[in-house]
Amino acid sequence: MAGFDDLASERSKAQFDVEEMKVIWAGSRHTLEVSDRISRLVANDPVFRKDTRTMLSRKDLFKNTLRKAAHAWKRIIELRLSEEEAAELRFYVDEPAFMDLHWGMFIPTIKGQGTEEQQQKWLPLAYKMKIIGCYAQTELGHGSNVQGLETTATFDPQTDEFIIHSPTLTSSKWWPGGLGKVSTHAVVYGRLIIDSKDYGVNGFIVQLRSLDDHLPLPGITIGDIGMKFGSGAYNTMDNGVLRFDHVRIPRDQMLMRVSQVTREGKLVQSNVPWQLVYGTMVYVRQKIVSDASCALSRAVCIATRYSAVRRQFGLQSNGIETQVIDYKTQQSRLFPLLASAYAFRFVGEWLKWLYMDVNQRLQASDFSTLPEAHACTAGLKSLTTSATADGIEECRKLCGGHGYLCSSGLPELFAVYIPACTYEGDNIVLLLQVARFLIKTVSQLGSGKEPVGTTVYMGRVEQLMQCHCAVQKGFLELSADLVQAAVAHCQLIVVSKFIEKLQQDIPGKGVKGQLEALCNIYALFILHKHLGDFLSTGCITPKQASLANAQLRSLYSQVRPNAIALVDAFNYTDHYLSSVLGRYDGNVYPKLYEEAWKDPLNDSVVPDGYQEYIQPILKQQLRNARL
Ligand SMILES: CC(C)(COP(=O)(O)OP(=O)(O)OC[C@H]1O[C@@H](n2cnc3c(N)ncnc32)[C@H](O)[C@@H]1OP(=O)(O)O)[C@@H](O)C(=O)NCCC(=O)NCCSC(=O)/C=C/CCCCCCCCCCCCC(=O)O
Ligand SMILES: Cc1cc2nc3c(=O)[nH]c(=O)nc-3n(C[C@H](O)[C@H](O)[C@H](O)COP(=O)(O)OP(=O)(O)OC[C@H]3O[C@@H](n4cnc5c(N)ncnc54)[C@H](O)[C@@H]3O)c2cc1C
User: Fold this and answer.
1) Given the CA of residue 425, which atom of ligand 1 is nearest to it?
2) For residue 449, what pLDDT is reported?
3) In which element (H, E) is residue 247 found?
């Protein structure tokens, strides 16, 4: 069988220990064991099948998502899965749903911004799913500008309550995932008003729906905001709209770790930075970087396996056409994405450590690394999601026409993934935050602070900053050029963390050698892509640029025999890949043909509508022809 033999042959060429690379990719043997076991548990459960998604109506699609979520919860309980195993199960169910926001935002917000007392009250309810929560920050009129939010939370000292209200149409909460049809509660971000004074944005826990009949509570108008990009994709999620008409909540439902409101209506600031109100966004941004490596590696796995199976032109002596993976143009498009997937994996590991470290320091009232954590999570979220969205689209194109079929898995992956460039912070707005951080950092250089990083990449950032730092320093006046410096800074971090990864103990025959090749491909690819920066800032000479280019092409040849093994190391099941082109067995053509006939359009040989619309035309033509 052509495809199968092709991939078997490719696997025999591997020059490194794939099983050890699986451990490197997973992060540890333990993590590999858990993800392998849980991904297969999901793959073998018919309730979690994904192949019908694009053919369902919005209501059937959503109901099926609820069915899957309920079944996932049932399996978690039945199997007594740990938090880690449960998160893996929800990950491999692979369908945007309210659970993401309940577990990924609502709970972390209460943990990060609630007092001990509030955590003791609300977390047990949330962990046992006795309530379902979402994160309601964005409004119809404001998303990026959090300080522009209009929802009000006015303290009423008569009743010891906050009155939550939507004063304008643009203050309607708009976009929160899980809000439209499922969540019973929300963390609502609104302007704290005490005695007519506006104290800025804070988080408030608000019940939205009855726990008895799920109907909206008095004063609550709530619904779904409508279809989004694509047919299946993110339409499994009930992104919602929410309006308040003077809804009253107890004072103790304002999240009070950052600031407290006393019974007398006095605002007391605690000793933690006010920016902790933004803490959930930092947490999710670092998760999103890890998710980017998953999404990109998934697309690269599909495109790499298909590139080894697909033969086109170039008849060889044995009369067989050439594998498209052997074309230099295919390699120059595909291998940098393979390298980027590994690079984002490792920078995501580092970012997770940075986030944990910041949180530990916060416990000890050490806020010194909070600005860097914000800048790194914001910048790397922006960089990795933009590169991943573009990379998934490139992988679709690398698969030719068949990449455009839903059965390739790539259109759906693209449609689900691309909002990552917007949610949790628009990517440009986040880069402007990094630019602001760089301006402050540059201003502190020489006072004992020295930049660190790989020379050429460091030089590029420094030079770009020098060129543009004369520009206005206000957030709104930051020039587009500073965004360029912010991107350069984030790329420096990615390369630096890849190099640091290589300095760790890396067991397994040939594993370190392959990672070194991928690290060099990523670094030289970025240098090639931004050659203007490196040359214009004098970081490299034209001769060096030419040498770097030649080295890049030589590295592609080094990776070529290992490409299939490098994507096998992701250890994805066919269920998770959900792609005929990316099947582990390479059995592409028979499966493509088989999938085609499953389309409902093929339920009848003559399509509905023929008699009403087509036959009259043909008959008329026939009559005309006889005249
Ligand atoms: C930062 C802004 C752009 C501007 O803020 P502003 O208040 O105006 O302040 P500035 O003047 O710019 O800055 C003031 C100073 O504060 C510093 N700062 C700013 N932000 C932070 C921060 N976050 N942390 C620390 N410090 C910060 C800043 O540097 C200044 O410092 P200095 O004065 O210079 O010293 C702000 O408006 C902003 O952040 N805007 C973006 C808004 C945003 O991101 N919205 C997101 C809404 S929520 C959302 O989109 C959700 C999407 C859900 C998608 C699904 C994702 C799921 C995947 C992951 C989770 C899945 C897990 C599943 C788990 C399981 O199943 O188990
Ligand atoms: C699928 C999806 C899920 C979401 N889930 C949630 C959720 O669960 N909870 C929640 O609260 N929100 C959620 N959101 C909302 C999301 O957080 C916002 O859409 C996001 O923060 C961007 O804000 P915005 O839509 O106001 O874009 P805007 O800020 O209006 O962006 C529009 C354009 O203006 C530009 N721009 C804005 N400000 C500046 C500036 N200062 N300088 C230069 N350019 C600027 C942007 O770069 C962009 O090009 C979700 C959004 C999506 C798409």
Assistant:
1) 44
2) 62
3) strand 247-250
Q: Which residue has the CA at smallest separation from atom 28 of ligand 2?
A: 144
Residue 214 CB: number of other CB atoms within 10 A? 11
**What does the pLDDT look like over 533-562, one tens digit per residue?**
999 888 899 999 999 999 999 999 999 999
Portions of the chain given CATH number 2.40.110.10: 107-270
Q: Decide if 98 contacts 182 (C-beta within 8 A).
A: yes
Residue 151 near residue 244, CB atoms below 8 Å: yes
Q: Which ligand is nearest to the CA of 137?
A: 2
CATH code 1.20.140.10 for 1-31+279-619: yes
* For the chain, percent of residues with pLDDT exceeding 70: 96
- Report the C-alpha gap between 396 and 411 in whole angstroms: 7
Beta strand 173-174 pairing with 161-165: unpaired
* Residues belonging to the chain: 627
Three-class SS state of 161: strand
To the query of whether residue 412 is one of the catalytic residues in this protein, the response is no
Q: Which residues contact 243 (CB under 8 A, 6 or more apart)?
A: 166, 171, 172, 173, 220, 221, 222
Q: How far apart are CA 159 and CA 250, in angstroms?
A: 8
State the complex-level ipTM.
0.99
Q: For residue 620, report the distance from its CA to the centre of ligand 2, in Å.
A: 54
Q: Where in the chain is the domain with CATH 1.20.140.10?
A: 1-31+279-619
Tens of pLDDT, residue by residue over 248-271, are 999 999 999 999 999 999 999 998
Over residues 301-356, the pLDDT tens digits come to 999 999 999 999 988 788 899 999 999 999 999 999 999 999 999 999 999 999 99
Tell me 103's DSSP state: I
Closest-CA residue, ligand 2 atom 1, reads 419
- What is the CA(294)–ligand 1 centre distance, in A? 22
- What pLDDT is attached to residue 476? 45
Cβ < 6 A, ligand 1 pocket: 87, 90, 99-100, 103-104, 135, 137-138, 143-147, 177, 275, 278, 281-282, 284, 287-288, 291, 370-371, 374, 423-425, 429, 433, 436, 440, 475
- Closest residue by Cα to atom 29, ligand 2, is 144
Phi, psi of 133 (to 5 degrees): -115, 160
Q: Whose CA is nearest to atom 7 of ligand 1?
A: 147
- DSSP string of 66-96, one letter each residue: HHHHHHHHHHHHHTT--HHHHHHHHHHH---
At the topology level, CATH places domain 107-270 in Butyryl-CoA Dehydrogenase, subunit A; domain 2 (2.40.110)
Give the pLDDT score at 475: 47
> Does residue 427 contact residue 143 with C-beta atoms inside 8 Å?
no
Q: Which of 424, 450, 500, 516 is catalytic?
A: 424
